[in-house]
């Protein structure tokens, strides 16, 4: 059973092109038993592999609980992708998702700020020093900067 295969990273550099995997396989006995079940995760960079390593070990432990008399063989490590284009495709897909997220968040914050401005303009003494309003402005700027960085990276 193959589970999540994706590359998540905040960096889009070409230097780190190793893809990490974790595999837990259940056999009836050690060294050549009959295959029972397999869980496999592939396509993680080193940061996300370290972050989710606890989950992989947890799933392997669940397999050991499910099959207490059988052997659970655990393998993990780094692989070079078969094609460098595959790695680049994963990076481009991630960049596209980040661009979509930035655009969505920019729209969300612009609408919220516009709504707040309309409400405050109706008041006799508007509160333009509201901490939530100022935080929304800085967050909006952060997403706009991130969007411009991502657009420059993808071109």
Largest sheet: 3 strands, antiparallel
Main structural class: alpha+beta
| Sheet with most strands: strand arrangement | 2-1-3
Q: Treating each run of at least 4 consecutive H or I residues as one helix, how many helices?
A: 3
Helix content class: 40-55%
Shape: elongated
Percentage of residues in strands: 15-25%
Radius of gyration: 23 Å
Strand tally, please?
A: 3
What is the terminal-to-terminal distance?
A: 37 Å
Contiguous low-pLDDT stretches (5 residues minimum) are 1-15
Mean pLDDT: 83
The H-and-E topology, N to C, reads as EEHEHH
Question: How would you characterize the overall build of this protein?
Answer:
- The chain has 155 residues and is α+β, with helices and mostly antiparallel strands.
- It has helices at residues 46-66, 84-122, 131-154; strands spanning 19-27, 35-44, 71-79.
- A three-stranded antiparallel sheet has the order 2-1-3, covered by helices on one side.
- A hairpin with a 7-residue loop joins strand 1 and strand 2 (35-44).
- Helix 2 runs antiparallel to helix 3.
- The chain starts with 18 loop residues before the first strand and ends with a helix.
- The model is unreliable at 1-15 (pLDDT under 50).
Give the secondary structure arrangement, pairings included:
Layout: E1 19-27, E2 35-44, H1 46-66, E3 71-79, H2 84-122, H3 131-154
Helix pairs in contact: 2-3
């Amino acid at each position: 059973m193959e589970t999540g295969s994706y590359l998540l990273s905040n960096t889009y550099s070409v230097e780190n092109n190793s893809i990490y995997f974790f595999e837990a396989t259940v056999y009836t006995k050690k060294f050549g038993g009959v295959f029972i079940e397999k869980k496999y995760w592939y396509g993680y960079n080193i940061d996300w592999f370290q972050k989710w390593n606890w989950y992989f070990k947890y799933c392997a432990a669940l397999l050991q609980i499910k099959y207490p008399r059988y052997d659970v063989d655990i393998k993990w490590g780094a692989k070079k992708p078969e094609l460098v284009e595959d790695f680049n495709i994963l990076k481009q897909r991630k960049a596209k998702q980040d661009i979509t997220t930035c655009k969505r968040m920019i729209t969300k914050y612009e609408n919220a700020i516009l709504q707040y401005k309309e409400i405050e303009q109706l008041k006799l003494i508007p509160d333009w020093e509201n901490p939530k309003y100022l935080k929304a402005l800085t967050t909006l700027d952060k997403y706009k900067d991130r969007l411009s960085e991502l657009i420059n990276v993808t071109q």
